[in-house]
Amino acid sequence: GSSCEKCDFETDLCNTLHELNLQPGWIRRNGRSGMGPPYFDHNGNDSAYFLSLSSDMRSSSATLRTNVFLPTDEEHVCQITFHYWISQMRGTLMVGLQKHSEDTITKIWQVSGELQNQWKTNAITINSTEKYEV
């Protein structure tokens, strides 16, 4: 069976991600919040919620961590699909992989310097022989 979990932020942060209060800088909002673009989610819905970086952030970066995922193999492939919007030229969005035996985070995808001002979608396939977080 499919173990896919959809994380749409409509009611809360959803189970995949750690509680938001551990992650300063991220806010859950929708397009009607009066905080500037985006004014809608990736489906064009202005009342649907998404995560956004607060404009009054003091630090230069903010992290979102997933819960622990189990190892992958031929039967259990992990693919994470996400929608993103970049509204700053100097902004960089990075996806990293941290395996449980390692202290370091390995960068597996990043995008930067693209002032798109539109929603884009990306899918990442992850292979790990041990438990990991993203």
TrEMBL record:
It comes from the Eukaryota. GO terms for cellular component: membrane. Coiled coil: none annotated. Gene3D superfamilies: 2.60.120.200. Residues 5-134 form the MAM domain. This is MALR1 protein. The gene is Malrd1_4.
